[in-house]
Amino acid sequence: MQINAVRRQVKARTLEAGEARVVAVSQTFDAPIDDVWDACTNAERIPRWFLPVSGELRLGGKYQLEGNAGGTVEQCDPPNAFSATWEFGGEVSWIEVWLAADPEGGTRLNVEHIAHVDQVRWAEFGPGAVGIGWDMILMGLAGYLSTAGLSIDPKEALAWQLSEEGRRFSAESSERWRVASVAAGTDPAEAQGAADRVFAAYTGGAPDPDQQTPAQETPDQAAADQ
């Protein structure tokens, strides 16, 4: 199950401009590192599992994802790592991506999304604000790499997000980010409230109390999962 294939962690980092929040995801794909790198950095392949992208995907180049973030490629070390600004809605955050051959086979992809987020907004939506989005991105990449390059239609992907299956995925993702947030030290009640609000933001409604979601984990169990 895709939702179980992702490792999630909430961290903090000190930047020159002050404290920043870090949402981290990682997943192993059954594909060689060169193929995963190309899928993530080739402008012809990215739209097959995510969104159309324009610009120059090279060191110092600027990119723009259609209807989403844009930015500047700040570091690039093929096929191992790249970093870029992630600019959206007048705000700037950063992504760091690195790949490594997994000892058990395949390629491990790690992503850290770093942002300055004020306490009010963090308390309102928590890590799921970007975490659910990254879960959906990894799901698209996993499906693409496992089906010999089968492309997805962004419009169909949006419709799926609002479908019953998509709502279940968002609920499960939100719950996993709640667990990661508690493991990072967030008060459980605050983490639950943020999880409920971010689910509503993604789906336009409150979670179904009868809907099956992953079992509640203690912070120690969540930390072990990381």
Automatic annotation (TrEMBL):
It comes from the Bacteria. Residues 210-219 have a biased composition (Polar residues). Residues 30-145 form the Activator of Hsp90 ATPase homologue 1/2-like C-terminal domain. Residues 201-226 are annotated as: Disordered. Pfam families: AHSA1. Belongs to the AHA1 family. This is Activator of HSP90 ATPase.
